[in-house]
UniProtKB/TrEMBL annotation:
Its EC number is 2.4.1.-. SUPFAM superfamilies: UDP-Glycosyltransferase/glycogen phosphorylase (SSF53756). CDD domains: GT1_Gtf-like (cd03784). This is Glycosyltransferase. It comes from Datura stramonium. The lineage of its organism: Eukaryota, Viridiplantae, Streptophyta, Embryophyta, Tracheophyta.
Length: 488
């Protein structure tokens, strides 16, 4: 039997096929490979096709490897794709419930075939670990079948995870699962001093959480309870009491912020849309004068909200760059404020793009604020670049993230007290935000330093990486001893 210090873990990594998750998985894969792990990275075929299309790479390049540059630098990252159970031309958004049912019942069979081949073939060393997105319902079953260490990767803050983890407490106390959910402050979740019901993830807030999507989310979190370890893209010092309480129940490792080295754009393609390049436009703007507006890669908002936002920007007179994905909403009722016509009205103070490299934009000196949906990647990137946030959460963990941004760390303001946008309120809030953002920058300096310190060799995340790899090797050794198998 190989001694523990000589074990070289071979991890299969499978992200959920969503932009924000793929970015984190790719950055984590590079980080773990740089620490000596062998990685087999698995994308769905549709994700792979979209990455190629966004890079203008021909579909006639079947051997295209997104990690080719990383491999040239000596990292052992292997790459493969699998079917999600549907044809490539299947309309997943238009048949959402059917697609989710497929992820429930079909996708795992494709994963099973792949993992079986990686474990039972002549790979050297054989796969010994599965790092799967927490938003999958099958990892514990497949890890158990192939005797793999089961690591669940949670791509949101620890506060969102512990909210799901303690749904039983929320249900017992009447804050979840009822048409008459209580609306008073929640003060009984371990490690959480207090949280308002409106700050819980949206799937827990819903008074009728019985849809296919709800069932899928809750099943995936139930499966995560069976994981050997949970890794999270957060920082110990930012959520210390929440993380400490979770660590009493699970092996939980805070490894964040999981960024590309040096916070530069990754050499590995991660965008599922073709990028516009607004840098030349930004170069013409004074320092800190532009508000960056983006609602992320997944959230949809109504055409009415888009119109109110557009009118609010017209009233505010602020300079801005606004990311309006082609699929962000249904068709607008008024062509007068469609993105092309809107740009005519704002002339040189506003720029509308379908997609861009957020890291390139948010790190530009001209950016003075970020009107954001509070996706977790956006929050961490904004803190790193010391850009104050104006928060408009839309769904899932974004309400929880807003609590951290506004109430806990005080690095952002609320755009709207409710979920309905009004143009006058938008204009007023944006103008006040620009005026009062300096008070947020003091807190941003402190919060950013916590991220920076965590990433140092002896910082909390640096230490947690070392502990994770040490514990992983120990668990691999235990599994091999119990099954009398070789690591070679």
């Amino acid at each position: 039997m190989e001694p523990e210090e000589n074990i070289k873990p071979h991890a299969i990594m499978i992200p959920a096929p969503l932009q924000g998750h793929i970015v984190q998985f790719i950055n984590l894969a590079i980080k773990l490979a740089s620490k000596g792990l062998i990685i087999t990275f698995v994308n769905t075929q549709l994700t792979h096709q979209r990455l190629m299309k966004a890079q203008s790479i021909s579909e006639d390049s079947p051997d295209y490897n997104i990690f080719s540059e990383a491999r040239k630098s000596g990292l052992d990252i292997r790459y493969t794709t699998i079917s999600d159970g549907f044809p490539l031309n299947f309309d997943r958004a238009g048949n959402h419930d059917q697609f989710m049912e497929g992820l429930f019942h079909v996708f795992s069979a494709h994963v099973d075939d792949l993992v079986g081949n990686l474990v039972n073939s002549n790979h050297n060393p054989p796969a010994s670990c599965l790092i799967a997105d927490t938003f999958f319902v099958w990892p514990s079953e497949i890890a158990k079948k192939y005797n793999l260490v089961n690591i669940s990767f949670w791509t949101e803050p620890a506060l969102a995870f512990t909210s799901y983890y303690h749904m039983d407490l929320l249900k017992i106390n009447g804050h979840f699962g009822s048409q008459d959910n209580r609306e008073d402050t929640i003060d009984y979740i371990p490690g959480v001093e207090a949280i308002e019901p409106g700050d819980l993830p949206s799937y827990i807030q819903d008074s009728e959480p019985w849809s296919t999507m709800h069932r899928y989310i809750f099943k995936s979190l139930e499966d995560a309870r069976k994981a050997d370890m949970i890794i999270c893209n957060t920082v110990q010092e930012l959520e210390s009491s929440t993380i400490s309480a979770l660590q009493e129940k699970k092996a939980f490792y805070a490894l964040g912020p999981i960024f590309p080295n040096g916070f530069t754009k990754s050499t590995v393609p991660t965008n599922l849309w073709e990028e516009s390049d607004p840098i030349q436009w930004l170069n013409s703007k004074p320092k800190g004068s532009v508000v960056y507006i983006s609602f992320g890669s997944l959230a949809n908002i109504s055409g009415q909200d888009i119109l109110e936002m557009a009118h609010g920007l017209l009233l505010s007179r602020v300079s801005f760059i606004w990311v309006v994905r082609p699929d962000i909403t249904w068709s607008l009722e008024s062509n007068d404020l469609s993105p092309s016509r809107f740009e005519d009205k704002v002339k040189d103070r506003g720029l509308v793009v379908p997609w861009c490299s957020q890291i390139d934009v948010i790190s530009h000196p001209a950016i003075g604020g970020f009107l954001t949906h509070c996706g977790w990647n956006s929050v961490l990137e904004s803190i790193w670049c010391k850009v104050p946030m104006l928060c408009f959460p839309i769904f899932t963990d974004q309400f929880t993230n807003r609590k951290l941004v506004v109430a806990e760390w005080k690095v952002g303001f609320d755009l709207s007290s409710g979920r309905i946008l009004r143009r006058q309120q938008i204009a007023q809030k944006i103008d006040c935000f620009i005026t009062e953002a300096n008070e947020l920058r003091i807190n941003l300096e402190e919060t950013r330093k916590k991220l920076e310190d965590a990433l140092s060799e002896n910082g909390s995340s640096g230490r947690n990486y070392k502990q994770l790899i040490c514990d992983l090797k120990s668990r691999i050794l235990q599994k091999c001893k119990s099954n009398k198998t070789s690591l070679l």
